[in-house]
Prior knowledge:
Distance between the termini: 67 Å
Order of helices and strands: HEHEHEHEEHEHHEHEHEEHHE
Helix content: 40-55%
CATH topology of the largest domain: D-Maltodextrin-Binding Protein, domain 2
Strand content: 15-25%
Largest sheet: 6 strands, mixed
Number of strands: 11
Structural class: alpha/beta
CATH class of the largest domain: Alpha Beta
Oligomer: single chain
Radius of gyration: 22 Å
Amino acid sequence: MHRRLALFTxxxxxxxxxxxxxxxxxxxxxxxxSLKNALDAVIAAQQIEITAVYAGSATLAxxxxxxxxADVFISANPDWMDWLETQGALxxxxxxxxxxxxxxxxxxxxxxxxxxxxxxxxxxxxxxxATAFVDAVPAGIYARAALQSSxxxxxxxxxxxxxxxxxxxxxxxxxxxxxxxxxxxxDAMAEPRVxxxxxxxxxxxxxxxxxxxxxxxxxxxxxAFLDHLTSPAAQAIFSAQGFGAVR
Length: 247
């Protein structure tokens, strides 16, 4: 009887340990919406369970600050990562820059790429330009900066169709609900129903950099995934999707 009890206890302890190990090998990543296709491909090659939550960087940062159960955060610009750092939400010393991107004017359907930035307000002809929110979402912030640097902001600002994240802006153009949009070049690559009309020069807006960091209480498994983002294997996947490396 004592031997059976001891065996049962040992088996129960082993099962509990296995369950704990399985639980520990799960990572929740909060990532900017523009990363979806590429990051999904990176995650698919991993041997651990990874849940990715995609949305605008502003939305995700606020959710993390409010206690959402994230392990890793990847933002589409440094500002929201800076803000989370001021909230004490990041593990010190874990932040690193992972990727870069370009900004593009897109249109519905196929078309030739313009050699110079066209007059967007004239092309819209009273219709809307799809962007992410220009006051909060990184892609929208970059779009406003690019339009300001080109001298087109004042005329285009009243014609914006602003969305929660850059993929929502992309969808408006893909469905023909807006004839033009400003999104990341990688978004245009991911959507066959749109074409690139013009790609902004890097000097037209602040550098588009994606920082990543661990959230407080994230474990070594999350750290390993964070480290993997800058590995040659992961960077090759990102590059194939149009992202640039941090230099």
